[in-house]
Structures are given as structure tokens and as C-alpha cells.
Amino acid sequence: MTTADDERRARIDLACALRSASRMGLGEGICNHFSIEAPGRPGHFLINPQGLHWSEVTPADLVTLDAQGRK
Q1: Which residues, 6+ apart, have CB-to-CB distance to 19 below 8 Å?
Q2: DSSP bridge pairs for 41
Q3: pLDDT tens-digit series, residues 25-37
Q4: Helices (H), the chain
């Protein structure tokens, strides 16, 4: 069983990965993204939102989408 803590941890990990990539100069361009499958929610993904610089992303900024791209 997946808990809210599992999603919280996934959000923290993804935000950290985005910020780390930004520090290494890997966040330039308009078509880049990182994503991770939402724990316990097959077919749903956490993704960084468009328009927010990777160096500024927090866990709360991440968006949950389904496989068809719907929020």
C-alpha cells in the first residue's frame, strides 16, 4: 500500500533532481522535462510545470498528469 509519504518523497526527489540538473546547466530549452510515475497510481505521473525555471521548482509546484496528459 502506498502512502501520502511515498508521494511526498517522490515530489521531493523530483524537485531535487530538477534543481540539481539546473545547477549543472542541463535545464536550458523549452521542451525539457523530468517526470516520475506517481507512487501507487499507475498511469499517473508527476512532472515539472511549463514556464517555471528548474532552479525554482519545489515539490508543491509539480503537476500530476495521467497518460493522456490530463491534470
Answers
A1: 54, 55, 57
A2: none
A3: 887 766 678 899 9
A4: 4-23
